[in-house]
Amino acid sequence: MPSTAPAAPVPQGQHEPRTDPQALTSNPDPSQNAPTDVDYTPHPESSLKVSPERELIVKKITNLYSGSASEEDMLVYAENAVYDDPLSFCDTRYKIAGQWYGIPKIMASSKTLATEIVLSNDTTLAWKQTQEYTPRLLHTGKKVNSLVTCTLDEEGKVVYHKDQWNEKDYSHEGLGKVMKTLNGDYLTGVTKPPKSL
């Protein structure tokens, strides 16, 4: 039975990945880079070779991006994991589930078209990703390239998941942070993920 005690917050500075997007993703051909010197378009043929355990982490997370809304896939996260993107900040696995369980509700489809692993070390796994989202109301797909960076604990669970859509890192200050946190805190009431998470 899951604990009803509030989850202890993850120290943000301890686990938040602070990678250099330009160094990780910049294309040797400058014409292939965005004006900010990043290239978030995946080139699967250039992907780093990683262990089967690391491949499974990428697979479970891309399943979630693609609308799996699966408890099994959600267990890739530690209980007190953080999810951080331009729209949301979630500080427990249950709140993160609120985001992923919302995808099948608002998207007619969500497909991971390509990934490229660009970093894998003892504590960090990062990849470029192209996701095609087709909202239910519009029925027109939109491709989004991003850099996904995950910090892992000693058990290989994700403790911090950052999804960057451009070269800018997140400040976690001001009105933007308030809105992201509100989104993370209240979306579970709409998407209703399993309480067991």
In round numbers, the mean pLDDT is 82
Structural class: alpha+beta
Stretches where pLDDT is under 50 for at least 5 consecutive residues are 1-12
Measured as a percent range, the helix fraction is: 25-40%
- Sheet with the most strands: spatial strand order: 2-1-6-5-4-3
Given the structure, what is the number of helices? Answer: 8
Distance separating the two termini: 10 Å
Give the H and E element order. Answer: HHHHEEHHEEEEHH
Strand content: 25-35%
Main sheet characteristics: 6 strands, mixed
Tell me the Rg in angstroms: 16 Å
Number of strands: 6
| Overall 3D form | globular
Structure description:
Strand 3 and strand 4 form a beta hairpin. Helix content is 28%, strand content 27%. It has a six-stranded mixed β-sheet. It is built from eight helices and six strands. The protein is globular and about 45 Å long.
Quick structural gist:
With 197 residues, this protein is an alpha+beta fold. The protein has helices at residues 12-15, 21-25, 52-65, 71-74, 93-100, 103-106, 174-186, 188-191; strands at residues 77-84, 89-90, 107-120, 124-135, 142-152, 158-164. Strand 1 (77-84) and strand 2 (89-90) form a beta hairpin.
Write the layout of secondary structure elements.
Layout: H1 12-15, H2 21-25, H3 52-65, H4 71-74, E1 77-84, E2 89-90, H5 93-100, H6 103-106, E3 107-120, E4 124-135, E5 142-152, E6 158-164, H7 174-186, H8 188-191
Parallel strand pairs: 1-6
Antiparallel strand pairs: 1-2, 3-4, 4-5, 5-6
